[in-house]
Specification:
The structure is a single chain. The chain has a 4-stranded mixed beta sheet with strand order 1-4-3-2, with helices on one face. Strands 5-8-7-6 form a 4-stranded mixed beta sheet, with no helix packed on it. It has about 130 residues and is α/β, with parallel strands linked by helices. A hairpin with a 7-residue loop joins strand 2 and strand 3. The chain has 2 domains: about 60 residues, 2,3-Dihydroxybiphenyl 1,2-Dioxygenase, domain 1; about 60 residues, 2,3-Dihydroxybiphenyl 1,2-Dioxygenase, domain 1 (Roll), CATH 3.10.180.10. It holds the Pfam family Glyoxalase. It comes from Nitrosomonas marina.
């Protein structure tokens, strides 16, 4: 077996429309084809990619304890200043780190249901005006 890449993450949502709006307005993902299923949800896509990268499941109770050990989901992104401006416009708290060794920017924040998101930006991106 050879792993060729990450396929998608799945998050549970207490409000499907709120989650779709968050991932659309904040991350720029868009809803696309989702095959018929017995459950309610959405599949979100980035740009013109042909496979979904985030699945949202709704009408399922939020777990009392986190199932498993996944800490966060990370996406490669560009335009750090725009990302920070968007988070500020939506009053979303964030933490920005610069990895000293690589110079890469890491931007952390949470979705409406508490899923931790990391956006990684190239070292060449200018320092944002906060």
């Amino acid at each position: 077996m050879t792993i060729e890449g990450m396929n998608h993450f799945t998050v549970i949502s207490s409000d499907l429309e709120k989650s779709k709006a968050f991932y659309s307005e904040i991350l720029g993902l868009h809803a696309g084809y989702r095959p018929p299923m017995d459950s309610t949800g959405a599949w979100l896509y980035a740009g013109d990619q042909k496979h979904s990268i985030l699945h949202i499941m709704a009408e399922r109770p939020m777990p009392e304890q986190a199932p498993g050990v996944i800490d966060h989901m990370a996406f490669t992104a560009s335009n750090l200043q725009s990302a920070i401006d968007t988070l500020k416009q939506h009053n979303i708290a964030y933490k920005l780190n610069r990895m000293q060794e690589l110079g890469v920017w890491q931007l952390f924040f949470y979705d409406p249901d508490g899923a931790k998101i990391e956006l990684d930006f190239a070292a060449e991106e200018p320092a944002p005006v906060e």
